[in-house]
Input
Amino acid sequence: MKTFNVGLIGMGTVGAGVAKILLEKNSPLHEKLDCVPALKGIADSNPEVKSKLNLPSDIFFTHDAKALLNNPDIQVIVELIGGVHPAKEIILEALQKGKDVVTANKMLLALHGAELFSQARRYGKSISFEASVGGGIPIIAALRDGFIANRIQSILGIVNGTTNYILTKMTKENVKYSDALAEAQKMGYAEKDPTMDVEGIDSSHKLAILAKIGFGVDFDYERIYHEGISNVEVSDIWYAYELGYTLKLVAIAKKEENMIELRVHPTLLPHDHPLSSVNGVFNAVCIQGSAVGETMLYGRGAGQMPTASAVVADLVDVALGRAGITFGAMKAFSGCCERVPISDINQIKTRYYLRFSVTDKPGVLAKISGILGNYDISIASVIQHKAKETGIVPLVMLTHLAEEGNLQKALDGIKQLDVVKDNTKFIRVEE
Output
């Protein structure tokens, strides 16, 4: 049986999972393939890592990544350290040394993917990154290969397990955001500093990768709109539920004629939408294609072994020569893709959920609806519950399709009304 030697840089949670699969004696890889990826060396800067590993004597361990980069017996480098630096420099040097690269680094690909892809093409090598989005869900392969005959029209995804776990807990157990976050941290689903997840930054990195592969265009990552879940209140989840909607943090990509919409934010979905039933740490991505129609891929979006599974799938593609052929043929990796603008968030048109805190007086609804009407915003439905002891009542509305810029102007005007006593909550809706 032929082998294909792998150098693994970064022995965190996912790295340990990759090593476990590659070192498994009865691995399904040996049952299915005549050429298998074989772990040759590991590099990690943490001096305690080696003592925790029970490595065979033929596996080289080092604290210096350059030892693997300079090893002529290693054909592919797996980068699993994350972040931008030194990951970017490691990948560039690996390509220069004539090695293919496999990575799970969504931040690096979102910010510097075009440069890295261009360098890989220059040196005749490939960069594979299935594990960068969706954990064990083969979403990159689906967009790149399975849907190659389609003009992708839209991509909607729940691509962050931490935020989905928090929102699921808030919805199912009626707990406030801070308590749900604390539980996610206790369970190991959220970092001590959860900012990247809960503010939608991680999802925006993943959305950039999906849009790049799905639409085959370049764009300015910094123009992607992202908004997190830290200001979500349980009351809005339940008012929206009463109106027939479920709240999720959704990454949204839509292709228009001369521009694209790329945005991440809390989103209300109808109860019967496929993404509405995706709960806990699971991820799912809905793709609308010109030939295939609507399809959804669903599974564990994070975790050691699901993500390691995706890394090893990429290694197999490299070992069998498929990665190089695909990378060399796809225009998305050429560095010469059409560059298109991202729509400003104020230009998007969608429906909106609005919650006002108003005094319990006659004529309040007429005043608010009058200002909304001045900006071409019509009301589809209204919920008004009993006033609290303070005389303040929640007034909940669902609008018809409206432009966000107009909505913001209307809300500025409504804020000036003496009957409105708190900041208005609004959530975007996707049908």
